[in-house]
Structure formats: structure tokens, C-alpha cells
Amino acid sequence: LVAADREGPDPFPAYATPTVTNGSPTLNSEEPLKPAAVPIRVWLIPLAPARRKIVPEALDRRVVDAFASRPEGPAPLFRKTSCAVSFVHGLPDYNGHYGIRELCDICPMAQLKLCANSHRAPTTRAFLDAAAELPEAADLKVLDITGRAVQVDGLASEQPRYFLQHAFAFQVHDAGHPHHLNRHGRADIGWEATTNG
After folding, report:
1. Tens-digit pLDDT profile for the chain (197 aa)?
2. Is the four-CA dihedral 157, 163, 164, 169 of positive or negative sign?
3. What is the side-by-side strand order in the sheet with 41-42?
4. DSSP-derived pairing of the beta strands 150-153 and 141-145
């Protein structure tokens, strides 16, 4: 989660490092989060090794609730770093997260409109033409294109996916690294099983 305020103390100092008990990493505190205006920064909670950021479902809810209940009013808060960066610069999200609607439930309305107005799914032909320029994407196959994402398979690494995602400002999901509903781009740790999204 990324807060887009530019001043104020860090509201999560107790969550900066994990506590390990009997070999199991846990959060340092169960105290309620104190709402605060915070600088733009990303909190990564290092609970265990994972390919993606670890933000357990309960922590996500606590952070969202804390920011929504600030006495001075809710602060802009985003689940994806690219959304916060885009907001600060007054641009639509360059990663095309608008198609993953469950991420946007906390976005400021003006940012949501900006992203909605620029959200366009690429055609299969345009996508394959762009991919053809990348030697690393020689085995890429487009499985599906929906309003959420281009579903692909056959990539040996993440780099071509990132390039294509940024080129089209539209999500690209690799079948080898599924994005699960409600926990887009997050490790499975701390989430109930859900279907792919």
C-alpha cells in the first residue's frame, strides 16, 4: 500500500521488521494502526521469502481502515506503487491497473476517471507486433485479451512482460505467474484461496 501524502510521521514503525517465533515470522504488533499523513513510501512487510510483495489480507484492511478514519479526512492511498506515482504526476497509471477493478476501490475519484479515460485493451495484432521486437518474447503466445489484462504464456522471464505492459499501459499477466483475484501482484501468504483474476 502506498500513501500519497507528502508530510508526516511513519504510521507503521512497529511493522518495519518482523519478529520470528519458533521459526515462524509474524508482525511485531497487533496494536491498531494510528492514522497519519505520511510521505510517499512503500511498506514491504518481510514475513517470508516470496516472489511478490507480502501484504496479508488483514493488514491491507487495517491500513485502509486507518487511512479512511483519519481525523483530518482520508488521505490518498493506493494499492500499487505505479498508481501513486501516476497520481502525484497527474497521469493515468502507466501499468494499466484500472482493468483490475478491485484494486481501485480506494483510489481518489479524479484519478479513477483519469485512468478510466485512458484504459484501452490492445488488439492481438498490435500486441504481437510489439512482442516481435523482443528476442525474449519469441515463444510468447496470447491466450486471451479481456478488459482486465492480456493473458500470455511462453515468457522465459518477467522483463518482456514489463516492457509490453508499460508500452500499452495495460496489464499483462503471465500464465506461469497467476494474478489472483483481490490480491493482484501479491504473494499468496496471508490470503484465502481465490480464483485467478
Report:
1. 555 544 444 444 443 333 333 333 334 444 444 444 433 444 444 444 555 666 777 888 888 888 888 888 778 888 888 999 999 999 999 999 999 988 888 899 999 999 999 999 999 999 999 999 999 999 999 999 999 999 999 998 889 999 999 999 999 999 887 776 665 555 555 556 554 44
2. positive
3. 41-42, 2-3, 77-78
4. antiparallel
